[in-house]
Design a protein that fits this description.
Residues 15-82 form the Transcription regulator TrmB N-terminal domain. This protein is α+β, with helices and mostly antiparallel strands. It has helices at residues 5-17, 22-32, 39-46, 50-62, 81-110, 127-140, 151-156, 158-164, 193-200, 234-255, and strands at residues 66-68, 76-78, 121-125, 144-149, 169-174, 186-190, 206-210, 214-219, 227-231.
Length: 257
């Protein structure tokens, strides 16, 4: 009993997701229903135009999904579904690996001075997008992570910061040190009172420095959609790192009193 046209169409759609064209999928599904068939029979079974049958069969043979006899007329057979799907999956995996390597090469080139990417500044909006990006940056850190931020921001980052503390140096400055419980992280300074008051009016605000080259500046007062600026620009990083140095200097001077 052959599958209904609706069933065959659904299976063909699934095969299209694995990289086959519509006609290739229809021909392969048609061949699964018979032991072997001529091009004319395949045209009748699949509904693929007669003129397209041979070109489609040639492509399926090249993809190792169909075999052909050396008889006259030629007869075609489909290889078993498990073998066919595995072959298609291997093809997808190989293409994905190639795409990944090529895209990574472009990305790495973007970060070099020749690529000019160091002067770019990206804008990120929304709590979820901002926190997700900062978590990724912390997870990718190889040397150090420094965060100057409101407790609301630090609280959202407590897990990735604690995980990072086991492999890189993590330094945190926040406006509510008494509430901070971050395993393995030393809060060495406290935000000046005048800055702390201003920071407290923000739901999530702060600056995240990663590896001395990446910086994310988060801004957003209560009731507003938060916005963050991210850059790997040397000038952008240097500008905001001055605030970090200023506050650390304030904390150190106060501790000596």
């Amino acid at each position: 009993m052959h599958p209904s046209p609706e069933s065959s169409g659904t299976i063909a759609e699934a095969l299209k997701m694995l990289g086959l064209t519509k006609y290739e999928a229809l021909v392969y599904v048609a061949l699964l229903q018979v032991t072997r068939a001529t091009a004319t029979e395949i045209h009748e079974l699949s509904g693929v135009p007669r003129a397209s049958a041979y070109p489609v069969l040639d492509r399926l043979i090249q993809r190792n999904l169909v075999t052909v006899s050396h008889t006259t007329p030629k007869r075609f057979s489909a290889i078993p579904p498990e073998e066919a799907v595995n072959s298609l999956m291997r093809g997808i995996s190989e293409k994905a690996s190639y795409a990944k390597e090529s895209l990574q090469e472009l990305y790495d080139r973007r970060k070099t001075p020749e690529g000019g990417g160091q002067e770019l500044v990206w804008t990120i909006t929304g709590d979820a997008n901002i926190i997700s990006r900062i978590r990724d940056l912390i997870a990718q850190a190889t040397d150090r992570v420094e965060v100057l931020g409101s407790w609301n921001l630090i609280g959202d980052l407590s897990e990735p910061l604690s995980l990072a503390a086991g492999r890189v140096r993590v330094d945190v400055i926040t406006n509510k040190p008494g509430e901070t419980v971050l395993p393995g992280i030393q809060i060495s300074t406290i935000v000046p009172s005048i800055w702390s008051k201003e920071m407290g009016s923000n739901e999530r605000a702060g600056i995240v420095f990663v590896d001395g080259s990446k910086v994310m500046v988060v801004m957003g007062s209560e009731g507003e959609i938060p916005i963050a600026l991210y850059s790997e620009s040397e000038g952008f990083y240097r500008f905001f790192s001055r605030y970090w140095s200023l506050i650390r200097g304030y904390g150190g001077a106060r501790d000596q009193k």
